[in-house]
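WARN retry 2 of 3 for item q-0093 after timeout on previous attempt; input resubmitted unchanged.
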Amino acid sequence: MFNKTGSIRTHPLADSTVAPAGFPVDRGLIRRLEASFAVLQPRSVELAERFYAKIFAAHPHLRSMFPDDMTAQNVKLVKSLEMVIDGLKHPAAVRARLAELGATHSTKGVKPEHYPIVCRYLLETMGEMSGSAWTDEVREDWALS
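OK item q-0093 returned
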């Protein structure tokens, strides 16, 4: 909730149960997330492939939750990331879509303990593919997303 200057700001996707109403959205955060994703977007299919390869190597038991052919799944991941970035300026719409996505995941056996695994390997993969553009601040921004 506090940015580097000590001002109170809210994450664009925060809901009113997390962030008090009336606090401004952190526009700098939006710009950093957009810029960091712009670095990755041209290689988004590779991002998805590397991300899933990391998860399956570290947690092979999760492989059975996914189709044999990951082509469509890779596209879904990329589209979800694009939806989040596009929705930063229209958070109500993206929050609703993320809630739907979460509900769909729960019907496929996804459990709360799976989300930290996904976050860890997604951030790790993004960092590896971003090079020097991946700063501690950018990593923290994505971790909050």
